[in-house]
Request: fold
Amino acid sequence: MNTAEGSTGLKFNEPLLWERGRPGRMGLSVPSRDVAAAPLAADLTGPGPDFPELSEVDVVRHYSRLSQWNYCIDTHMVPLGSCTMKYNPKTHERQAGLTGFCAAHPLLPASLSQGLLQILAELESFLAEITGMNAVSLQPAAGAQGELCGMLIFHAYHRAAGRQRSKIIVPDTAHGTNPASAALCNYQAVKVESGENGILLPEAVAQIMDEDTAGIMLTNPNTLGLFEEHVRAIADIVHAKGGLVYGDGANMNALMGVVDMAASGLDVLHLNLHKTFATPHGGGGPGAGPVCVKKHLERFLPVPRIVKKGKAFHLREDYPDSIGRMHAFYGNVGVMLKAYSYIVSMGADNLKKVSELAVLNANYLKERLKETLDLPYDRPCMHECVFTDKQQRAHKVTTLDMVKRLMDYGFHPPTIYFPLVVNGAIMIEPTETESKETLDRLIAAFQSIAAEAEQNPELLQTAPHHSRVRRLDETSAARKPCLAG
Amino acid sequence: MKELHELNLPEDVRYSQDHEWARRENGRMRIGIDDYAQDQLGEIVYVELPRTGEVFSKGAEFGTVESVKAVSELFMPVGGKVTAVNTALADSPELVNQSPYGEGWMLEVEVTDPADYDSLMTKADYLKQLKAEA
Reply:
């Protein structure tokens, strides 16, 4: 295979705007003052901010050149495991950019925001339908805040039941933010190890579940990309001791329309609209992490809640058991609009197909690559699969070296060294939006890199070779960060 | 990364399952992470340690170590009360990479139960465990 899709070309270094500017240069003409000068209070005056002074063409060239350094989902595949970097169709940007939405002020009264509130209410009902859960709050800003919201609901539930608990069970294949979310609610995370085939066994949970444990946080599919087959049995064990079951729905892209999350025994579930429902993320925009609950936890959801009374939608605050507000106004509404547009444009059957194709693509990669890369858990995977560098270690080539080399082939590196339970992990999530041809090119790139690892390990150890910058000094950047502009 | 035979595993310390070491020194116990752990973690950029006076049981989490690859918990190889903390690691976390048994030490502990040390692995036993893991 040719080493890259790219050809030669000039890429331009670009100075900071402050270095580009010259005093007195302007991008627009300010009309001369036509009113009398008036003195300002002393505490309102002082030296102005240090803004660069630039012409329009300076600014346009600066940002256009920076944009040429971009590597993004609109230019290339980004197979980042656990991140669901699917292509985000442009129609959703168009819908969210309609003047009626993007010019809506958050302080508008509900009576003047009926259209927007109706869409948000409908989105809540769609998410309830997709997950099987009973009630939804769209407020949390992203996945980790959704988890925190879920844990606050656990906390409020146990407090209302009259006996707070001190622990929470978190499997070793859960998302890394889970224990942090639990700790913020004063719960001590108790780790439970997954079984030999990478999934959690009910016996392991039964051994540690007790009446001082608030519940369990499950990620399904787990971070190995494997379906947790025993969720129902585990939920029964946890419920029998008075605990609750939290579902981390970050990997929902594998399960839409296929698994009824409520029937699997979950009490709370968060979704990542920015992953599963195709809104730009990872530097491309903010997230949204709605929380879905069963009926018995609805009273704890964040306020305000959108309610319909007669024909009108209202934002209601009077829920005395609510955990309170998670976000200013009603969360990241722009993201919600794009997710709504995605759901409506896809329809129920196509959402199910999304999950089927996401799983098919990951299994295709897994089967085609398992001779090239070590596959620690050789069983059907869901939307992502996890390899290791075990076969290449003998040549002193690591996971990091291989994925740096992958950049030379025109692919963003996959997620590496995560999940922690796999030594030297290479975690690939292709998503449903990549064609078979693109997957074949990724496979060919890995095969070529594995051959290079045997024949010329130094090529990998010094990769990437074609990128604008080579290996950055991450260590100094982390030890002595320079955060000034 | 290092092959097993390239690892620096001194005889004067004992090793835990979680890749910490403990060494008897002047009636106290010094604690750190071993060469295998620092090699696996890669360049260490931050070490979070407890305050002196805190008490931990054997196996309890006493801090975290952050490398360019991952954040990992640190677990007590022996139980006891912290009598000294290596404050140099706050500004120079790279000492853990450069000298895991020397300048990269982490805690000095007044041991609660001397038997904790005897339950740790010798170099030979530890190497056996590493071979089994690989």
User: Anything to note?
Assistant: Helices of chain B lie at 35-41, 88-91, 94-98, 115-118, 123-133. The interface with chain A takes residues 1, 40, 43, 45-46, 66, 68-70, 72, 93-94 of chain B (CB under 8 Å). Residues 123-133 of chain B form the longest helix (11 residues). The first strand of chain B starts at residue 14 and ends at 15.
